[in-house]
């Protein structure tokens, strides 16, 4: 039987939700602050969007399968359909249209950043319904330089968060979609799955069942093969580029973007993976598709891309933390500071502890009080502290310091 809370509600969380204990919550705050600090240095200004929106805002952007994952309800009083925030980009687009139109019309590039939670109905038992993101949006600049900036910024953000050497996967979703538009009617979703798995044999069988010309048939095969280091773009046959000018134009833009990254960050360029068969992600993506991977996480740490009017990415904090746990299990370090503990609960001793805590806070240190604990219990409760001040039954204050977790050393003794 599941545990039940006093009011009779099952004491388990809804599917896809989780709690964070103090150490993990503290690390999340530190990681979020580190990411936002990087974005600030790159000129991205913070914005805050509401947790609820009219459903129409998302309905204009999201495909039907994503709209079905929105948590919707009727707004009291108006009868309008509203939804919990399921994605940030549609909100940024709404904000830009309502409040930033003049700046964008004047030709200004607008850089925005955010830290927000999104909620989507989970599609499986292991999928999180609540996701925590810190991201950026770059509006009004559709040049290759803007795409390169986002790639460089994503890597800088991950390094600031403690993930070095992440693999950044780059694609242009317009390439595969352009090929799909030139196919006869078929099960495109099945083709998406084959390309995602790099199932060359499966793609060949799929193509064999279609009435295709030579170029589309060859290109479908190449979409599976053209996956790897940026040099893979050199393997695109010149005759296909000549036959399909639209493809040559998209490839040239992607090559320009990668060249800009190579010029500014050769080490990052060496970690890029190009996938010309990539089609996953929100349907509103129109060009650049960016994802970042690191050991320990089965989900990408960064997701994003280019859409009509802008481009951006989100750092997925949950996936990032899984990777940090896998590579540095001690990263969620204790908070530090001093805990003042008293053996009993007498008002006089608690007053002395309060005075000591106020003095520590005035000096800029983190300080808090525990009452009614033995020394052993106080040391266990002070796991987050660097220092423990223990006021015993004899009214004397013992000061203990903690170098390594659980390694307490008595520093001094004085009158309370």
UniProtKB/TrEMBL annotation:
Pathway per the UniProt entry: Amino-acid biosynthesis; L-histidine biosynthesis; L-histidine from 5-phospho-alpha-D-ribose 1-diphosphate: step 1/9
Domain Class II Histidinyl-tRNA synthetase (HisRS)-like catalytic core: 16-319
Any one Gene Ontology molecular-function term assigned to this protein's record: glycosyltransferase activity
Keyword Glycosyltransferase part of the UniProt annotation: yes
Subcellular location: Cytoplasm
Keywords: Amino-acid biosynthesis, Cytoplasm, Glycosyltransferase, Histidine biosynthesis, Transferase
Additional note from the record: This function is generally fulfilled by the C-terminal part of HisG, which is missing in some bacteria such as this one.
Assembly and interaction partners: Heteromultimer composed of HisG and HisZ subunits.
Family as reported in the entry's similarity comment: Belongs to the class-II aminoacyl-tRNA synthetase family. HisZ subfamily.
Summary of the function given for this chain in its UniProt record: Required for the first step of histidine biosynthesis. May allow the feedback regulation of ATP phosphoribosyltransferase activity by histidine.
Protein name per the record: ATP phosphoribosyltransferase regulatory subunit
Organism of this sequence: Nannocystis pusilla
């Amino acid at each position: 039987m599941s545990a039940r809370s006093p009011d009779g509600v099952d004491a388990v969380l809804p599917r896809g939700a989780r709690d964070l204990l103090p150490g993990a919550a503290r690390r999340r705050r530190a990681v979020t602050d580190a990411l936002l600090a990087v974005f600030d240095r790159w000129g991205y200004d913070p914005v805050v969007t509401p947790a609820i929106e009219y459903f129409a805002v998302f309905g204009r952007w999201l495909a039907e399968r994503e709209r079905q994952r929105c948590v919707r309800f009727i707004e009291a009083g108006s009868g309008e359909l509203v939804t919990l925030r399921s994605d940030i980009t549609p909100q940024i687009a709404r904000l830009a249209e309502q409040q930033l139109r003049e700046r964008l019309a004047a030709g200004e590039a607008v850089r925005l950043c955010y830290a927000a939670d999104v909620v989507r109905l989970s599609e499986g038992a292991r999928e999180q319904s609540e996701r925590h993101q810190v991201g950026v949006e770059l509006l009004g600049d559709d040049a290759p330089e803007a795409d390169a900036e986002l790639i460089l910024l994503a890597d800088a953000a991950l390094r600031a968060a403690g993930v070095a050497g992440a693999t950044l996967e780059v694609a242009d979703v317009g390439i595969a979609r352009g090929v799909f538009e030139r196919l006869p009617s078929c099960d495109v979703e099945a083709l998406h799955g084959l390309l995602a798995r790099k199932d060359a044999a499966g793609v060949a069988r799929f193509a064999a069942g279609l009435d295709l010309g030579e170029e589309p048939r060859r290109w479908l095969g190449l979409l599976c093969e053209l996956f790897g280091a940026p040099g893979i773009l050199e393997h695109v046959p010149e005759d296909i580029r000549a036959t399909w000018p639209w493809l040559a134009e998209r490839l040239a833009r992607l090559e320009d973007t990668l060249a800009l990254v190579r010029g500014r960050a050769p080490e990052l360029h060496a970690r890029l993976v190009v996938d010309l068969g990539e089609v996953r992600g929100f349907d509103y993506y129109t060009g650049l598709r960016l994802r970042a991977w690191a050991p320990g996480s089965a989900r990408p740490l960064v997701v994003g891309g280019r859409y009509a009017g802008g481009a951006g990415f989100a750092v997925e904090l949950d996936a990032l933390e899984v990777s940090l746990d896998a590579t540095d299990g001690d990263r969620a370090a204790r908070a530090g500071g001093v805990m003042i503990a008293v053996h009993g609960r007498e008002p006089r001793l608690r007053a002395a502890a309060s005075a000591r805590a106020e003095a520590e806070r005035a000096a800029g240190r983190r300080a808090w009080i525990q009452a009614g604990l033995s020394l052993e219990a106080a040391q266990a409760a002070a796991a987050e502290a660097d220092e423990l001040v223990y006021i015993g039954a004899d009214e004397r204050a013992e000061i203990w310091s903690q170098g390594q977790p659980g390694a307490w050393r008595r520093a001094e003794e004085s009158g309370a």
